[in-house]
Amino acid sequence: MFEYGDDKPKEECGVFGIYAPDQEVARLTYYGLYALQHRGQESAGIAASDGRSITLHKGMGLVSEVFSDSIMQGLKGKMAIGHVRYSTTGSSLLANAQPLVVHYQTGMMALAHNGNLTNAADLREELGKKGAVFQTTVDTEAIINLISRYRRDSFEDALVKTMMDLRGAYALVILAEDKLFGIRDPHGVRPLCIGKIGRYYCLASESCALDTIGAEFVRDVEPGEIVVIDEEGLHSRRGLSKTKRAACAFEYIYFARPDSTMDQLNIAESRRKMGVELAHECPIDADLVIAVPDSGTASALGYATTLGIPFGEGLIKNRYVGRTFIQPTQAMREVAVRLKLNANASVLKGKRVVMIDDSIVRGTTSSKLVDMVKKAGAKEVHFLISSPPVAYPCFYGIDTAEREKLIANQLDAEGIREYVGADSLHYISEEGLLRALGTEEVCLACFNGAYPISVSDLNRGKNNFESHNSCG
């Protein structure tokens, strides 16, 4: 039998930026990052600028671990950007933490990136031949090098030329020349939205960060758009022509906070509709519907309401557990699962249970949860998934592992059912997912292998570079 690790794809990254001379921009950035903590827990950083110089602090760990009040006091300025990171290929190093700050001929620049460039290795090779020196293994540094080399033109023109060289997914926030810039790739794979606080503006990966700091949601950054925020307010220009929008479907399924809205779609409502579609596709005669919290909860409620089955808290989440480290023995791995989730026997005993989760990536945790619910006394456990089978890796900023380690790439649905030990198993169909979202403008590559942006560059020139590396 194959070996699988955790069931969930790892978070991408989160970015935040604000221009507000009349506010404590670093502290607001801290709160924005706190709201985006679910998008990355390995490192955090904030860069603040007074328009001439940039002050940076970053470190390994959670936002609350990296920043203290004394550190925040030292981050002065009228604009700031911040970043929380998860690295997909294991290089969890301070050097790779963001934002990245550089000096170039006419000033300083700070940049934070959510996404992954598919042609990063080629860019680094080409830049290296021209004398560029790299201090990190992140693709973000290639973006900074390109901007610096094109800087002989206006900064906005340099950004446009840089975008023409980039392939892949990216949402960028940049401090330079007394301005805050936001950029989204032409497919809109990674999210970025605009908020307004007082008379000034801010940028964030998710609208929940805007709510946290009391900012008003304005709109999403359009695919291929460059947003410029300065003393005059907000203006934008077209960086690249629009192509077919392909927002990441997993944002709606799992990654984003349920209180966020992305590209006019509310996350919680989208997940509820996934549960409704599951109810239409796979109605089960059951006594109880439970969720694998938290991202399975809205779908479970949608399923239960549609079929008139009671919803109960069959799995209880320990909300005080943060990061857990990989345990050396099978017994300790099972303890790690129980630290995060525990079965509520008083709710489950003697019941035919429908358990709804958002996804299965490798399968091991799913099997432990099914076993946990059965040991708590459930007569039957029917496992429903609000995403299609994850059978292909993501190259745009999510760690879904190598293809051969994805359980849906190795086993069919019946084989997965046997592996996790459920009485039945059903994945939502791609058609059902699209109906729930109400749009076809999403990337489904991890389900069907139809990559909207070429990944052929990944087969060349990897060298020592993390060519499949989230957030740079």
UniProtKB/TrEMBL annotation:
Residues at the catalytic site: 13
Pathway: Purine metabolism; IMP biosynthesis via de novo pathway; N(1)-(5-phospho-D-ribosyl)glycinamide from 5-phospho-alpha-D-ribose 1-diphosphate: step 1/2
A GO molecular function held by the record: magnesium ion binding
Signal sequence extent: none
GO process annotations (BP): 'de novo' IMP biosynthetic process; purine nucleobase biosynthetic process
Entry keyword annotation includes Transmembrane: no
Cofactor binding annotation: Binds 1 Mg(2+) ion per subunit.
Binding residue positions for Mg(2+): 295, 357-358
Enzyme kind, highest EC tier: transferase
Reactions the enzyme catalyzes: 5-phospho-beta-D-ribosylamine + L-glutamate + diphosphate = 5-phospho-alpha-D-ribose 1-diphosphate + L-glutamine + H2O
SUPFAM superfamilies assigned: N-terminal nucleophile aminohydrolases (Ntn hydrolases), PRTase-like
Function field: Catalyzes the formation of phosphoribosylamine from phosphoribosylpyrophosphate (PRPP) and glutamine.
The protein's name: Amidophosphoribosyltransferase
Species per Swiss-Prot/TrEMBL record: Desulfosporosinus youngiae DSM 17734
Underlying gene: purF
